């Protein structure tokens, strides 16, 4: 029971009944700039999973929209008291109380189906013929390009994907949809991205694309390991452990619904213990 309050289905029902009587909504911070994970109108992947969770614990979902990138949701949303919950946080995030993981996935290569790929390890990025690489900034993808020795040759190209917007003192990134469309249109030989951020676009592309989860981690020259696979949890404000416990049970009891949402998006999954 890993030190948490033992929460049963009966206890969840009691929590739901109390929440419904109190009329308190489940306040979930949501970015307006994090498609396809979060989208105005509640059609984002994590918005839809939040709806399942809210219904399971007997609360009305209130998506608290913040017109900033997802990296600011904890600081400008949770810490500011605007919401109590963040969706899709890493399971080891110490900033919040985390639930059990509701899926595990990782960084992936996106290629056209007719593009030869020499394996599913990150080192395949070094293959000859994979010269133009589209990727999102500020994360492991950018680091992989550097370790593959192709960063300098792609610097101007990737900067062009943000219309050469200055990165100094400002969070600038390549839109997830753009990363995929660059491959689909033949402008890039390969793309690298966190799989849930691009799966919807890969699935809906007009040309056949393939998404390949990277199977290993990157080890820096100093021996530090950079993980490329992550378990995703619901993050809850530390002042509400009972809410975290209720969501924990809801994730188990409504796993089939959540899995169906993930499958519908085309998100490739990894075994929980991988």
Automatic annotation (TrEMBL):
Domain of life of the source: Bacteria
UniProt keyword Signal present: yes
InterPro entries the record matches: Methanol_oxidation_MoxJ, Solute-binding_3/MltF_N
Signal peptide limits: 1-22
Domain Solute-binding protein family 3/N-terminal: 25-265
UniProtKB keywords: Signal
GO cellular component: periplasmic space
GO biological process: methanol catabolic process
Membrane-spanning ranges: none
SMART domains cross-referenced by the UniProt entry: PBPb (SM00062)
Protein name: MxaJ protein
